[in-house]
Amino acid sequence: MDIHEVPQEGNRTMGGHRRAMYARDADGRIVIVASAGGEVDETVTLQALEYIREQTEAARKRVEAGASSPLEYWMYAQRLDLPQLSQVTGFWKWRIRRHFQPQRFAKLSTDILQRYADVMGITVEQLKTLP
Amino acid sequence: MNMLIENFQHRHAAHCESGVASSMLSHHGAKISEAMAFGLSGAMAFAYLPFVKFAGFPLIAFRMPPKAILKGMVKPFKMRFHFETFRDQDKGMQRLDELLAEGHIVGIQTSAFWLPYFPADMRFHFNAHNLIVYGKEGNDYLISDPVAEDPQRCDAENLRKARFATGLMAPKGLLYYPEEIGQKEVTTEAVLRSIKKTVRTMLGPVPIVGVRGIHMLANKVGKLDTADKLSLNYVGHIVRMQEEIGTGGAGFRFLYAAFLQEAADITGRDELKVLAEMLNVIGDGWREFALKAVRMIKGREAFDPKLLAQMLHKQADDEKEFFQALKRAIA
Q: Containing H/E element for B44?
C-alpha cells in the first residue's frame, strides 16, 4: 500500500480518532501514517454494531411481551452475549438463562443484581427496567 | 497528587502491545520502532480457532496471542520484566501510584470497554488491551495509549474498572515495567532468530495455524450458505480482525514488511528488502479481499463465497511462497 492509498475518507465509528497504518512512501520506505479510516473499516464495524442492535431490539420485544427479563436486554445493550456474560460474572450460562425468566429475575437478591450491574457499567435500578 | 515522568514520549502505533513495547524500551534507552518490536518477537502469524468463539464468531488472529510481544522482548534485549497482578484492587491502584512516584512509566493491561477516551463504537469487552501510564494529575491518570494519536487521560475509577475487568483474559490488575535491559542494540542474531521463528509458525504443520490455517478458513468461507443472513456477518468479522482492530493494515502484513526493511539494514542482507516488497504486495492482496468482501456486504456485488474463498486460497499460496523464500534468505 502506498501512502496515498491509506484510507482518509473518514469513518464515523472512530469518533474523530485516527489509527496508525503502515504504507510505502515515495522512496519505497514503509512508514507509519495516521489514517482517518475509510469505507472498508467503517462498513464492518457498523455491521457488527448493527448485529448487536438487532439482538438488543429482539430482546426488548421479548421483555415487553413478558417472555424475558430486562437482564437479557441489558446484556446485548452493553455489548455482551451469553458466553461473555457468563465469563465476566462467573455465573454458569444455565443460571443466567434462568435469570432471563421474568418471575425469577424479580426475586433476585441485590447482590446478584449488583454483580450484573457492575460488569455492565449500569446501576441496579437501570438493570430492573427497560430504558 | 501530581506526578509526571518528564522525558517520556508518546508514540502512535498500529497495535497496542507492539506500541507499548517500543515506547517502553525506547524510554529505557533501547530505541526501537513498533515494527522492530513486532517483528523481533515473532508476533506475526495466522490462526483460525473455530472452537474459540468471539462474539459468536470464531477467533481469527493475524498475530500471536496477547503478551507474546512483551515476552518476546526478553531474550533479544537480555531484559528482565517485572510483571505483577493483584487480587486486591486497592493494592493494585496503590502500587501503580507508588511506581509513578518512583519515576517509572508503567505498562498495564486493561479492558477496552471501560476506557472513556475510546470512541463509543469501539468499546467492546476486550481484555487484552495494553497501554502505558506516565503520570497522574489530581484524579486523572496520564495515559499513553499506543493506538491513540495523542496522549489521553483516564480517571481513577474507570482505570480501576478497566484494570480489574473480569472474563476471558482478565487483566487482574496486571502492571509491568523493565527491571533491567542488558542489551540496547538489536543484533543480527536476534533478527535472524525471530524470522526463523515466524517462518516456522507460518509454514508449520498445525492445520489451523499459518498458511494451512488460511486454507482452512478459505474452505470454511467457501461453504458459507448465501441464504443465511449471518454469513455476511462472518465475512465482515474476518475483515474486522484484519483491518479494523489495529493491525496497521492487511492483518499486520505491512507492519512486518516494515520490520523486514529494518532487518535488511541491521543484518546487511539486501534480499530482505526484496522480500519486504513481496510482502507488501501480499498485503495489497489482503486489502483487495477486504474490499471485495465489503462490496458484497454493501450489496453492490452478489455475495459469492466461492470467489472469496478463492481469494483467500491465493493469499495462502502467496504467503507460502513468501515464507519459503524468507526461509532461504536467512539460511
A: strand B44-54
